[in-house]
Design goal:
The complex is a heterotrimer of chains A (300), B (346) and C (314).
Chain A: H1 26-38, E1 51-62, E2 65-76, E3 80-84, H2 91-98, E4 108-116, E5 119-120, H3 128-134, E6 135-138, H4 149-161, H5 166-179, H6 183-186, H7 199-212, E7 217-221, H8 229-242, E8 247-251, H9 255-261, E9 264-269, E10 272-278, H10 279-284, H11 289-295
Parallel strand pairs in A: 3-8, 3-9, 6-7, 7-8
Antiparallel strand pairs in A: 1-2, 1-4, 4-5, 9-10
Helix pairs in contact in A: 1-8, 4-5, 4-7, 5-7
Chain B: H1 30-68, H2 71-74, H3 78-85, H4 95-126, H5 129-144, H6 147-165, H7 171-174, H8 185-210, H9 213-221, H10 226-255, H11 258-263, H12 277-282, H13 288-295, H14 303-338
Chain C: H1 4-43, H2 49-53, H3 69-100, H4 106-120, H5 123-134, H6 158-182, H7 186-194, H8 199-228, H9 231-237, H10 254-259, H11 265-272, H12 281-313
Classes of the chains: A alpha/beta (300), B mainly alpha (346), C mainly alpha (314).
C-alpha cells in the first residue's frame, strides 16, 4: 500500500491560484480537487522519528470539571500528527497545553508532565515567550492583526529578535511569506491591510507569521474549518511541504483531511486518548472499537 | 520505541535555532513586571478620588454643622442670613434652598417622565427604521447643549413669556412677600425638564429594548394589540431600568446650578401652595446648587459664608451619592431580571 | 365571541397611546430644533470678524461688551489642559479595568462604585472641592496669589480649573475608553500571546493601537463636556474678562497666563446675560452660538471616530 500524496506537480507554481473558486485556470482547480479525491489512502513516510514532545499522564480540569484524563503520548519530530475526535473530546485543550495557552484561563488546573526536547515546559525558570517562540500556533478563525501584511510579521519578529536592520527584516518577511506560499499574492501589497485579504490568504498569513519566528513545532487548531475547499487544499499542501522541516500537530474534525496529510493520528474521546498510532494503521485497522465506530461515522 | 531526543538538541530547522532552550530569556521583561502595578495604581486612585472630595468638602463644612447641627436644614431665611453674614453673624438655615431644589427637580421629573416615556416608547417600538437614528441624534444633541445656553434661552424666551402672558396684573395683592416676575419655579421646571430628559430617555430606551422579544411575541400571539404589549408586558418588565433612569435624571436635576440661577429668580423662597397652584408656580426659588454658584465669588472670603456654602455642597454630595447607589441597585435588579449575569454596571 | 365594542375601545385606546408617544417625540424634537434655531437666529448678527477677534470690554452700558476672543482662548486652554492632565490616568485606568482587573476581586467593586459615584457628583460640588483643596498653601504654585504673602493660595487659575475639570470629566473618559478596549476581539489577543508576546506588549502593540479610534472618541467626548461646563469654571476661574497677559500667544507668557484667572465662553455668556452683571444679551447670544458650534463639532467628531473604529474592528 504505497502512500500517495496529492500530486504536487499538478499545481503549476508559477500561476497564482486564487483562493476562491474563480481560479485563473480552471484546470488548476480540477487538478487540485482531483488530488484531494484520489489520495484516499493514508501516508507512509520512511524512517523512525524521534519524539519532539513527550506527554505523560496529563490531567486537565477547569475548576471542578475534568477535561482530560491521564493522557500520555509522544509527538514525532518533523511529521504531521493529527488529533481527531468528536467535539468536546478535549483535543483542542490538549493542543493548548503544549504551548501553555491554557495558563491564561483562571480556573485552569493540570497535572502531569509535558516535555519539549527533554525539558519540562512547566519547570522552574521556563520563559513562556521562549516556549511560544519554539511552539507556534495557528487558530481556527484567522486572526491577523489590524495592521498591514508586513507589520503583522514584523511585529512577531520584533518580539524575539529585538532591533534588527530593516533589510534583514524585509528578508525575513519575504522568506516567511514564501514559506507560507503567500508571497506571490501579496508582494506588491505588503503595506496593505491584512484584513483586506481573503479568508484563505489571512490564514496563510497567520501561518507565515508563526513561521517567521522560526519555531520547531507548529500547531494548528482546525485551521481550515472556516475555509472553502480550494483554500483548504492549498493549506494542506502547504503543511505537507512544511513537514519536512517542522514538526506539525493539527487538530481536525475532518477525518478525510487527517487521512490525507497525517503521519500519526491520536484519537480522543471524552477526555481520554483512546488510540494513537500510524495513520495507516489507525484508519485501516483500528485497534479499538471506539476508534472504528468514529471513523465509520457512527457518531461525531 | 522511538529514540528520545537528546535534551535540547533537535534536527535543525532551516534558518532556525539548533537548540531550544526554554530557560533563555528572550526579551527583557522589566516593563512587563511593573506595568500592571502602575496601571493598577491609576485605577485605584481614580476610584478613590470621590472619597477625597467627600473629605475636603465635609472638612470645610464642619464649622457650620458643628455649631448648628440639624437646624441648618430646618430653618429658613437664607437671603437675610446671607446679608447679615457680611456684618458678622454666622447663622444659616437652608430649608428654602432644599425646598427650591426639591420643587424644581420633582416638577421636572414629572414632566420629563411623561414626555420621556413617550420618546422612549417611540424609539424602542414605534419609530420607523429611517427615523430612529435622526431622533436619537436629536436626543443626544439635547444632552450636549451646555447648561448656560439653556439658561440664556430660558431667560430670553421662557421667562419673558411667563412675564408677559402668565403673570396676572394684581399678583402683588395675592403674594405679598415678594414681587412676582417671569423668573420663577415654572421657568425652572420648564428648563430643567429638557435638560434632564435625555438622561431618562436613553436609559428608558435601552431598558425597553432589553426586554426579550419572546415576551412580546407571546403577548401578540394571544391577540394583544401592540400598545397593550407595551403597556402590560414591556413597561412592567423594564420598570427597574426606568427607575434607574429617573434616578439618574433626578441626580442631574438636583445638581444643576447655572440654569436655575438664571431663570428661577434667585430668591430663597418656599413656594406656597396656599396661594393656589398658579401662584405657587410663579413664585421664585433658589436651589442649593444655584445658591453656591451665586455666592461662590467674593462671598467666599467671609469664612462663615464659605462654611455655609460648603455645607450646601455636602448636602448635594449626600443626595447625589445616595441617588447613584439607588440607580446602581435598580440597574442590578434589572440585569438580574433580564437574566444577564454581570457584575458590571450598564 | 367577546364584545366587539370592547375590542373597538381597546383599539382606540391603542391608537391614542401611540399618538401620544408620537406627539411627545415630536414635541421634544421641536424644542431641540427650536433651541438651535433660535440661537442661530439671535446670535448670527452678533458674529463678525470683529466679534471673534477682539477682546471683551468691561462695560455696563448695553450691548458694548466687545469681542469674544479672550473667552474663546480661555475655553481652548481649559479644554486642552484638562484633557492633557488626565489622559494618562484615564487610559491607564481603562487599560487596567479592561485587561487586568478581574470582576470577582473586591477591589474591583470599590473602584467601579468609586467611579460611578464620581460621575454623579454635580459640577458645583467639584468647583467647591477645587476651592477647598487648592486654597491650601501647598498649592500656591498653581495660582498667582491674590493677597501677597498670605498663607493661603488664591485658588483660582486656569491650572486649578483644568485640574478640577479634568477630574470631573475623568469617569466618562474612562468608561468610554474601557468599552473601546474591551471591544477588541479576544482572538487578536490570543494570536499575539501564541506568538510569544507578553501581556503588556500585547496591550501596547496590538490592543491599544486597535482601540485607538474608540479612545479618541472618549477624549473628544470629554472635551465636549469640559467645553460646556460653567459651574466649575465660574468657581475656580472667576469671571474676569481679561487674562494675566494680553499677549497670551507668547510662550514666555504661558505660565503667568495659566496661573492667572480668566474667562471662558461659558462664563462670558453667564456674565453677559441679563442674569449676570453685564448687559449685553447680543454678545451673549453670539458667544452661545460659537459655543454650540464648538460642542456640535466635537460631538460629531466623536460619532465619526466611533463609527470608523467599529468598522475597522470587524
Amino acid at each position: 500500500m504505497s502512500g500517495t500524496r496529492p500530486p504536487v506537480s499538478a499545481i503549476r507554481k508559477d500561476v497564482p491560484v486564487s483562493d476562491t473558486f474563480m481560479t485563473a485556470d480552471p484546470r488548476d482547480t480540477f487538478s487540485l480537487l482531483e488530488g484531494m479525491l484520489s489520495s484516499s489512502a493514508p501516508r507512509v513516510r520512511a524512517g523512525v522519528a524521534p519524539a519532539v514532545f513527550e506527554v505523560r499522564a496529563l490531567d486537565v480540569s477547569y475548576g471542578s470539571k475534568r477535561v482530560l484524563h491521564d493522557v500520555s503520548l509522544e509527538l514525532p519530530e518533523k511529521r504531521i500528527t493529527a488529533f481527531i475526535g468528536p467535539s468536546g473530546c478535549g483535543k483542542s485543550t490538549a493542543l493548548r497545553c503544549l504551548n501553555r495557552m491554557n495558563d491564561e484561563i483562571p480556573s485552569f488546573h493540570s497535572r502531569g508532565k509535558i516535555m519539549l526536547a527533554g525539558q519540562d515546559i512547566r519547570g522552574k525558570g521556563v520563559d513562556l515567550t521562549a516556549l511560544r517562540r519554539a511552539v507556534g500556533m495557528v487558530f481556527q478563525q484567522p486572526n491577523p492583526f489590524p495592521m498591514s501584511v508586513y507589520d503583522n510579521i514584523a511585529l512577531a519578529v520584533g518580539e524575539h529578535e529585538g532591533r534588527i536592520a530593516r533589510s534583514t527584516l524585509d528578508g525575513i518577511v519575504e522568506q516567511a511569506l514564501r514559506q507560507a506560499s503567500l508571497w506571490e499574492e501579496v508582494k506588491d501589497g505588503l503595506k496593505g491591510s491584512a484584513l483586506a485579504l481573503s479568508g484563505g490568504q489571512q490564514q496563510r498569513l497567520c501561518i507565515a507569521r508563526a513561521l517567521a519566528v522560526k519555531p520547531a513545532v507548529i500547531m494548528l487548531d482546525e485551521p481550515c474549518a472556516s475555509l472553502d475547499p480550494i483554500s483548504t487544499a492549498r493549506i494542506e499542501e502547504l503543511l505537507l511541504e512544511l513537514s519536512t522541516d517542522y514538526s506539525i500537530v493539527i487538530v481536525t474534525h475532518n477525518m478525510a483531511q487527517a487521512k490525507r496529510i497525517s503521519d500519526k493520528v491520536a484519537f480522543f474521546l471524552m477526555g481520554r486518548l483512546v488510540e494513537m498510532g500510524d495513520a495507516l494503521q489507525v484508519f485501516e485497522a483500528p485497534a479499538r472499537s471506539e476508534t472504528a465506530e468514529y471513523i465509520s461515522g457512527s457518531f461525531g | 520505541m522511538p529514540a528520545h531526543a537528546e535534551a535540547a538538541v533537535l534536527a535543525p530547522v532551516p534558518g532556525g535555532p539548533t537548540v531550544i532552550d526554554l530557560k533563555e530569556r528572550v526579551r527583557s521583561t522589566a516593563s512587563d513586571r511593573f506595568m500592571p502595578y502602575l496601571l493598577g495604581a491609576t485605577a485605584i486612585f481614580s476610584g478613590l478620588i470621590v472619597t477625597l472630595i467627600v473629605f475636603f468638602v465635609v472638612q470645610k463644612a464642619w464649622p457650620v454643622f458643628h455649631t448648628e447641627g440639624l437646624r441648618f436644614i430646618t430653618t429658613s431665611g437664607w437671603d437675610t442670613q446671607l446679608e447679615d453674614a457680611w456684618n458678622g453673624s454666622a447663622f444659616f438655615g437652608v430649608r428654602a434652598l432644599i425646598a427650591g431644589s426639591a420643587f424644581s427637580t420633582l416638577g421636572a421629573l414629572l414632566v420629563s417622565f411623561v414626555l420621556g416615556l413617550g420618546c422612549a416608547i417611540f424609539l424602542a417600538e414605534l419609530a420607523p427604521a429611517w427615523l430612529r437614528r435622526p431622533f436619537e441624534t436629536i436626543v443626544q444633541l439635547l444632552a450636549g447643549i451646555p447648561s448656560v445656553v439653556f439658561g440664556l434661552l430660558g431667560l430670553m424666551v421662557v421667562v419673558t413669556f411667563i412675564a408677559d402672558h402668565m403673570v396676572p396684573g394684581n399678583s402683588g395683592d395675592v403674594v405679598t412677600e415678594i414681587p412676582i416676575g417671569g423668573a420663577c419655579l415654572l421657568a425652572a421646571i420648564v428648563v430643567l425638564t429638557f435638560m434632564i430628559l435625555p438622561f431618562f430617555v436613553t436609559v428608558a430606551t435601552d431598558s425597553l429594548r432589553a426586554v426579550p422579544r419572546s415576551y412580546v411575541d407571546g403577548g401578540l400571539a394571544l391577540g394583544m394589540t401592540r400598545w397593550r404589549t407595551i403597556m402590560r408586558i414591556q413597561l412592567p418588565t423594564a420598570a427597574p431600568g426606568l427607575i434607574a433612569g429617573l434616578v439618574l435624571a433626578a441626580a442631574r436635576g438636583i445638581g444643576e446650578a447655572i440654569a436655575i440661577s438664571m431663570v428661577a429668580g434667585a430668591i430663597a423662597f418656599v413656594p406656597n401652595l396656599a396661594h393656589g397652584p398658579l401662584y405657587m408656580l410663579l413664585e421664585p426659588i433658589r436651589s442649593m446648587a444655584s445658591a453656591i454658584v451665586e455666592n461662590g465669588g467674593e462671598a467666599m472670603d467671609v469664612p462663615a459664608i464659605a462654611a455655609a456654602l460648603f455645607g450646601l455642597a455636602t448636602l448635594l454630595l449626600l443626595f447625589s451619592i445616595t441617588l447613584s447607589m439607588i440607580a446602581r441597585w435598580a440597574f442590578g435588579l434589572f440585569s438580574r431580571r433580564m437574566g444577564v449575569v454581570s457584575d458590571r454596571n450598564l | 365571541m367577546g364584545s366587539i365594542t370592547k375590542q373597538g375601545n381597546r383599539r382606540i385606546g391603542s391608537r391614542i397611546g401611540i399618538a401620544l408617544c408620537w406627539a411627545a417625540s415630536i414635541a421634544v424634537a421641536a424644542v431641540c430644533l427650536f433651541i438651535i434655531g433660535y440661537l442661530v437666529f439671535q446670535g448670527w448678527h452678533a458674529i463678525n470678524w470683529h466679534f471673534l477677534s477682539s477682546d471683551p470690554v468691561a462695560s455696563l452700558s448695553e450691548d458694548s461688551a466687545g469681542g469674544v476672543r479672550t473667552p474663546m482662548v480661555g475655553t481652548a486652554i481649559l479644554v486642552i489642559f484638562s484633557i492633557v492632565l488626565i489622559l494618562p490616568v484615564a487610559i491607564g485606568a481603562a487599560v487596567y479595568l479592561a485587561e487586568y482587573m478581574h470582576e470577582r476581586w473586591w477591589i474591583t467593586r470599590i473602584v467601579r462604585i468609586g467611579l460611578e459615584t464620581l460621575a454623579s457628583v454635580p459640577s458645583v460640588v467639584f468647583g467647591m472641592f477645587g476651592l477647598a483643596v487648592f486654597t491650601l498653601g501647598f498649592f500656591k504654585f498653581l495660582s498667582s496669589s491674590g493677597t501677597e504673602g498670605g498663607s493661603m493660595a488664591f485658588g483660582r487659575s486656569f491650572l486649578v480649573a483644568s485640574i478640577v475639570m479634568g477630574v470631573h470629566v475623568l469617569p466618562f473618559v474612562i468608561k468610554v475608553a474601557e468599552e473601546a478596549i474591551r471591544s477588541i476581539p479576544a482572538s487578536l489577543r490570543q494570536g499575539a500571546l501564541a506568538l510569544g508576546m507578553t501581556k503588556w506588549r500585547t496591550i501596547r502593540k496590538v490592543v491599544l493601537p486597535a482601540a485607538a479610534p474608540g479612545i479618541a472618541t472618549a477624549v473628544v467626548l470629554g472635551m465636549g463636556l469640559a467645553a460646556g461646563d460653567t459651574a466649575i469654571v465660574w468657581l475656580t476661574l472667576g469671571g474676569t474678562m481679561t487674562m494675566a497677559s494680553d499677549a497670551w500667544w507668547k510662550i514666555s507668557n504661558w505660565l503667568p497666563v495659566l496661573r492667572g484667572a480668566g474667562s471662558t465662553l461659558t462664563t462670558f455668556i453667564y456674565f453677559n446675560s441679563p442674569a449676570g452683571d453685564g448687559n449685553s444679551p447680543g454678545a451673549a447670544f453670539g458667544a452661545a452660538l460659537v459655543l454650540i458650534v464648538l460642542v456640535l463639532v466635537l460631538n460629531l467628531t466623536a460619532q465619526l471616530l466611533f463609527r470608523r473604529g467599529s468598522k475597522a474592528g470587524s
